[in-house]
Amino acid sequence: MNRMEKVAAVHIASVLALVLSSLLLHGGNTQDTEGLRNSKQTSGGHNGALMVVPNEEELQEDDEDDNGVVSVELDDYDDENLEVFYPTKEWQRIKPGQAIPAGLHVSIDLTTGEKRAKLLDDDDHTKEKEEDISSRYMKWKDGDRQGMVNTKNKYFTASELKDALKKFKADQDDVSAAGQQKLKNVKDQYRSYDELKDILQQMHVDVETDTEIMQKLLLAYTEEGSSGDMRLHVLTELEYHVHQIDNAQNLIELGGFQLVILALNDSNSDIRAEAARVLGAAVQSNPKVQIEALESGAVPTLIRFVASDSSTAVRKKALYALSTLVRHFPLAQLRFLQQGGLSCLAQLFGDPNATTLRIKAVTLLHDLMVEQINVENLSPDNPTNMEKKKQYEKVPLLQMMVEAGWCQLIPTLLDSPDHDTREKVLRAMITLFTPCHNDYKSTETQQHLSVLRGEYQALVVEEKPEDSGDDYFSLLLSLVDEISTKMS
């Protein structure tokens, strides 16, 4: 190897040594290499710069050994600003604010307060090759900063840097023996699910996850010869589990969602009603399941049940499922309108046995109108809001309600004896006031409003002395007055 090749090889080793020594002396804080050579530390560190120097013997052309020694020395040694104390066998003064490695012999002069330190005496005089690495490389720590010094020399050879770095890393909590033991102790405090399951099985206690339970329920439902009572029981149990969002989504993966859709068409009305209840619970505030239900054709099926099923229980549960499916889901709302949903709900007003269904229908439509109004008022600065607006603009709910005669239908429920029903009707009328105000001027509607005003004025008087803080009748009176004021 010629002289230039030697210099290049030593230079590469020098850079490696400099980086490793920087990690050791500064607690892993990486710095620009040139900065370490030429500039002083400004954060209270060493005033002198680290300098990498090759062993002069390596530069002799006659030397046949290419394995030189790379040393890292402190240049411009400044005793006044040295942060890390460099220990020796001799007593040395510890300067104020100076960090010292652990494991030193420290003395304090009680008269002057001066502190001194040195290495512990070594009586056994063991040979260097038998020295323990931990005694050669001592760690220091100053706040968040930490590093290591060589107690034998003021420099690190390349091999010593590697040994010291291994020692430094081995002392960290995540790899040290103490750290590993701590981790093991924490793990020992808890048991895995499989371990707990085995223990409980030995105690004759059967533990199953919700998914495992749903799997068994689906097998029981599809088992050949399964009775109607068993299938009804399965659906009731599923309804309990699918209220949890993850369980409802897992039901799709298990193939159980299609089973529920098929159960909607069962000849047994109790099973149809319970299947609709399971569907309503599964899709509620669960977009993934709402999409699955929409793609499975649930909307027209539920509309048909609400309009014409022979069982009142099935109609109620179907309207519940329809309501949870279309809420906050503009595409489902569009399908609802396109497939005759408004006409279906309007038919309820001619059915003497559908009083409860009429109220639920008005509540649903009012909620959908408020939903659209809220989206219209969203800030345009947010891209997500703009996308929502685009989706709801495709749902002509208000226009189709007016065309379907809902301006005349909704006020007919003002004669309901139930205050909660009246509140829903009044709020729906206020929401629809702009396109419907001419219809509200009918004599019949005006009479209903007049009767309600007188009734609630009297109830407000009775409500005041009680001072319950509720003021419910005052609220209802304010709704009546709001409509009357708008019409005057």
Task: Give the helices and strands, then pairings.
Blueprint lengths: L2 H23 L7 H6 L11 E5 L15 E5 L17 E3 L10 E4 L6 E4 L14 H4 E6 L2 E6 L7 H13 L6 H12 L4 H10 L7 H13 L5 H14 L3 H9 L2 H8 L5 H15 L3 H9 L2 H11 L3 H15 L3 H9 L2 H6 L8 H22 L6 H11 L3 H7 L2 H4 L9 H13 L1 H8 L2 H24 L5 H16 L1
Antiparallel strand pairs: 1-2, 3-5, 4-5, 6-7
Helix pairs in contact: 1-4, 7-8, 8-11, 10-11, 11-14, 13-14, 14-17, 17-21, 21-24, 23-24
Verbal overview:
- The protein is mainly alpha-helical and 488 residues long.
- 58% of the residues lie in helices and 7% in strands.
- The protein is built from 24 helices and seven strands.
- A three-stranded antiparallel β-sheet has the order 3-5-4, with no helix packed on it. It has a two-stranded antiparallel ribbon with strand order 1-2. A two-stranded antiparallel sheet has the order 6-7.
- Strand 4 and strand 5 (115-118) form a beta hairpin.
- The protein is elongated, with a radius of gyration of 41 Å.
- The N and C termini lie far apart (106 Å).
- The model is unreliable at 2-13, 15-82 and 123-131 (pLDDT under 50).
What labels would you give this structure?
488 residues; three-stranded antiparallel sheet; 24 helices; 58% helix
Instruction: Please bin the fraction of helical residues.
Output: 55-70%
Average pLDDT level: 77
**Biggest sheet: strands, sense, closure?**
3 strands, antiparallel
* Structural class designation: mainly alpha
- How many H/I helices? 24
Distance between the termini: 106 Å
> How many strands in all?
7
Strand order in the sheet with the most strands: 3-5-4
Bin the strand percentage.
5-15%
Using only C-alpha atoms, the radius of gyration works out to: 41 Å
- List low-confidence stretches: 2-13, 15-82, 123-131
**Overall geometric form:** elongated
